[in-house]
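Entry 14. Ran structure prediction on the chain below.
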Amino acid sequence: MREGPAALAVPELLAVLLDTGTRERMASSASPARLLRDFGGLKGLCEAEPGALLGVPGLGPAKVARLLAALALSRRYLEERLVRSGPVEGPEAAAELLVARLRGREREVVVGLFLDQRHRVLACEDLAQGTIHEAIVHPREVVRACLRHNAAALIVAHNHPSGVAEPSPADCALTRRLREALALIEVRLLDHLIVGEGAPVSLARRGLL
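Output, structure tokens:
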């Protein structure tokens, strides 16, 4: 409380969150340093499935729920900050929210970021969920969502669980179908982002939109 959370290292922040502050608990399998080591760092811990976390001795349902709630709050904060930050200008402005929403998922998910005429965020929601290899999104469902939000523009994003963010022929074909379908209702498809390891790939920047 005196120094603020920025003064704490990652294991110390985890100790506060998971209430592992005593000498006995710090020596258990649920100690912050051991959790970070066993899950390959903070990224691996944050992207772990609940079942894997519940398998750690000393991490009961309450602590796992607390960790998942903290992650969900951080994502909601990013979404709310983007909604209130004014117009979205370029793929980088939307990437932070979309990466937080998509990275680490074990199946492909397609997300839509719905914008008004001034490119201010109206909503961000999942449009389709699929397998580890593909997520099939139907243009009519995207059109219906745009009409429901009264959107004037849309940014679509999906993840590649493999970590390789290069667009596939199917990704390019989907982008063309979405652009054509949305043009019929005068909604502009601004970009299609692919999220993997590293920076997301923008199909608009690649000239593929």
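Residues 61-84 form the longest helix (24 residues). Will compare against last week's run tomorrow.
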